Amino acid sequence: MLKSKNIELVPFETRYIEKFVEFRNSEDSRNFTMPGIPYPVTEDSVSEWLSKKANPSESGEFAIIYNETNEYIGNVSYNNVDWKNRHCEIAIMIGEEKYRNRGLGTEALVTLLDFIFNELNLYRVELKVYDFNERAIRCYEKCGFKKEGLLREVVYKHGRYINEWVMSIVKDEFSRHNYQGNN
């Protein structure tokens, strides 16, 4: 369990699957879902996916719990850990719309990054984000992520090709970054 001021990150368990399916199948979520995630998501497919992610040396999936109401509001994860080069990828979803634009995603990411850099002792974290997802890009930049490069017209979605930004942060940048309202 990883705790901060307003949220707690707990290991994702089967009790969250039903709500996760609701989040992931929503129209809003589908607009921002990266390639390779099947649609529609079913409880069986999530259970199977969860059993395959059971090795914490390769990945970790956390439920984001809002402390004030003890409500499950989304997920944050790390994946594709490269222990030799000490880096991984991350992803986040605030599925409960009423909890968006309140800084909780930033807080969840800062909490996860602290764990990745200081507990797992990784050095670099990266992510990909659609270029039109301005809310997410602002969140990542608040956490200290930098845009590294643009993957031009890499995904076909909504009847057109979409660009993705590759963003990253390294441990030294995370240590120096000034976070507001977290922990």
Brief rundown of the structure:
By secondary structure, the chain is of the alpha+beta class. Helices cover 31% and strands 35% of the residues.
Give a written overview of the molecule.
With 183 residues, this protein is α+β, with helices and mostly antiparallel strands. The chain has a domain of 124 residues: Aminopeptidase. It has six helices and eight strands. The protein has an eight-stranded mixed beta sheet, sandwiched between helices. A hairpin with a 2-residue loop joins β7 and β8. α4 packs across α5. The longest helix is centred in the middle third of the chain and has 15 residues. It is globular, with a radius of gyration of 16 Å. The model has no long low-confidence stretch (mean pLDDT 89).
Q: What is the global morphology?
A: globular
Radius of gyration equals 16 Å
Question: Order of helices and strands, N to C?
Answer: EEHHHEEEHEHEEH
How far from one another are the termini? 14 Å
The largest sheet, given as strand count, sense and whether it forms a barrel, is:
8 strands, mixed
Structural class: alpha+beta
Rounded mean pLDDT score: 89
The CATH first-level class of the domain at 2-125 comes to Alpha Beta
Total count of strands: 8
Q: Please name the CATH architecture of the domain at 2-125.
A: 3-Layer(aba) Sandwich
Helix amount, in percent? 25-40%
Instruction: Enter the CATH topology name of the domain at 2-125.
Output: Aminopeptidase
Biggest sheet, spatial arrangement of strands: 1-2-3-4-5-6-8-7
**CATH H-level name of the domain at 2-125... which superfamily?**
Gcn5-related N-acetyltransferase (GNAT)
Q: Tally the helices.
A: 6
> In what range is the share of β-strand residues?
25-35%
**Poorly predicted runs of 5 or more residues:** none
